[in-house]
């Protein structure tokens, strides 16, 4: 009797991460990589074409990435179970990723062993959150260490959170606009909305907060 094989689509633009994931799944009896994508457009195309059982997804690829990409992949491959494997500041993104349709979230700092366990959990029909993500989400739910800044992040839209992340990565307004295919004026409007929601008084304080709050991928 032939053993069932599940197909995994890898979406990540870091060569070292791709190498590690290839090694993990190449030596796994149940899971095999059916495709790889390093940008959002290719990821959407492959998800629709290959209809994978699982998608291992980094949230940061440029352009229409992050939470929007989770939604796009769910629409392209409705049966796929998405595992986020990202270095993003997980407690800012995990809840939104799950609400968008992802079934698991692992921080890259936790390594490939956790990814293997997470995929097995998803295969059993359950949702998986790594320990650090679970702890922070529980703290948020209970209101532990909640302050005005933390509460303000919940007011940000997915696009505003994406712009904040890109500011934290050192991108200029023009660079963000080109990456998101939006005008400089529109990005400027997003910056002002973020400042207002987070009660920030200047562009400098916005940039400082962005750098401290967003972990680069």
Can you walk me through this structure?
The model has no long low-confidence stretch (mean pLDDT 85). The protein contains 11 helices and 6 strands. The N and C termini lie far apart (43 Å). The protein has a 6-stranded parallel β-sheet with strand order 2-1-3-4-5-6, sandwiched between helices.
Task: For this entry, give a set of tags.
six-stranded parallel sheet, globular, alpha/beta, 217 residues, 56% helix, 6 strands, Arc Repressor Mutant, subunit A, 11 helices, single chain, 2 domains, Rossmann fold
Order of strands across the main sheet? 2-1-3-4-5-6
Helical run tally: 11
The helix content, as a percent range, equals 55-70%
Q: Please give the CATH class of the largest domain.
A: Alpha Beta
What characterizes the major β-sheet? 6 strands, parallel
Distance between the termini: 43 Å
Radius of gyration: 18 Å
Topology as a string of helices (H) and strands (E):
EHEHEHEHEHEHHHHHH
CATH fold type of the largest domain: Rossmann fold
Q: Can you tell me the number of structural domains? A: 2
Task: Give unreliable regions as ranges.
Answer: none
Mean pLDDT: 85
According to DSSP, the number of beta strands is 6
Q: Architecture of the largest domain in CATH?
A: 3-Layer(aba) Sandwich
Corresponding CATH superfamily of the largest domain: Response regulator
Give the overall shape.
globular
Proportion of strand residues: 5-15%
**Class inferred from helices and paired strands:** alpha/beta
């Amino acid at each position: 009797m032939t053993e069932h094989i599940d197909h995994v689509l890898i979406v990540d633009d870091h060569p070292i991460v791709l190498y590690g994931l290839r090694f993990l799944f190449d030596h796994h009896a149940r899971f095999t990589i059916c495709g790889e994508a390093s940008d959002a457009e290719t990821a959407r195309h492959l998800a629709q074409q290959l209809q994978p059982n699982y998608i291992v997804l980094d949230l940061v690829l440029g352009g229409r990435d992050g939470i929007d990409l989770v939604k796009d992949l769910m629409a392209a491959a409705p049966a796929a179970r998405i595992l986020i494997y990202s270095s993003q500041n997980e407690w800012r993104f995990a809840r939104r990723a799950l609400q968008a349709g992802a079934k698991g979230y692992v921080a890259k700092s936790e390594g490939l062993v956790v990814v293997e366990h997470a995929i097995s959990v998803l295969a059993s029909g359950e949702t998986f959150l790594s320990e650090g993500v679970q702890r922070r989400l529980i703290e948020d739910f209970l209101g532990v260490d909640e302050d005005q800044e933390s509460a303000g992040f919940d007011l940000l839209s997915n696009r505003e959170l994406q712009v904040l992340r890109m500011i934290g990565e050192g991108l200029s307004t023009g660079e963000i606009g080109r990456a998101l295919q939006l005008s400089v004026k529109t990005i400027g409007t997003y910056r002002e909305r973020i400042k207002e929601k987070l009660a920030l008084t200047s562009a400098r304080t916005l940039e400082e907060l962005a750098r401290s709050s967003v972990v680069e991928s």
